[in-house]
Amino acid sequence: MAKCSCAGGVKVVLPCSGSANVGQIANEAAKRLDIEGTAKFFCTAGLGGHVSGMVASVKGADKVLVLDGCPVGCARKCAEEAGISGFERVVVSELGIEKKHEFNIAEADIQKVVAQCRATLSASGAKKGAGCCG
Ligand code: SF4
User: Fold this and answer.
1) Which of helix, strand or coil describes residue 20?
2) Domain residues for 57?
3) Considering only CA atoms, which residue is closest to atom 7 of ligand 1?
4) Is 69 in the pocket of ligand 1 (CB under 6 A)?
5) For the chain, what is the domain count?
6) What is residue 130's predicted lDDT score, i.e. its pLDDT?
């Protein structure tokens, strides 16, 4: 179970989880960020599908990180379609990882993306003030 990240506000990560190595690296990185308590992994498809509770939860977060596999930007488009703004963004293929339609993902690439996500979240300013525990 993820730790509460209240001290730094509620942080959310939205991976594209796409059908390519870079999409699956994004998905794996989001899982690890959630498990370590850095950011809650939310269902990006739920935003694209306008699931009202999910949209409200993400809009209520202090920091939102969109994690796309490639420049097509499907996670970004889902977030924008749901009316989410002011988010940070990391694109896996812009970190020196070539996009391929395969699912053999390297541990070193996952760790590189996780590190970039941590750095991006810690460098960004909070959208709102209070944390989730008051
Ligand atoms: S951003 Fe790229 S990898 Fe991710 S779902 Fe879209 S096309 Fe696939």
Assistant:
1) coil
2) 10-123
3) 72
4) yes
5) 1
6) 35
Q: Could you tell me which residues are beta bridge partners of residue 41?
A: 13
pTM score over 0.85: yes
Ligand 1 test: best mutation among 70, 77, 93, 94, most atoms within 8 Å of CB? 70
Take residue 101 and report the two structure tokens written for it.
Answer: 């339609």
> Ligand 1, closest atom to CA 19?
8
Ligand 1 atom having least distance to the Cα of 91: 1
* Residue 46 alpha carbon to ligand 1 centre in Å: 16
The number of C-alpha atoms within 13 Å of 1 and in the hemisphere containing its C-beta is: 2
Q: Is residue 4 part of a domain?
A: no
Lateral strand order in the sheet of 40-41: 40-41, 11-15, 63-68, 88-91
Mean pLDDT in residue range 78-88? 96
For residue range 84-111, list pLDDT tens digits in order: 999 999 999 999 999 999 999 999 999 9
Looking at residue 117, its amino acid is: C
70 in a domain, yes or no?
Answer: yes
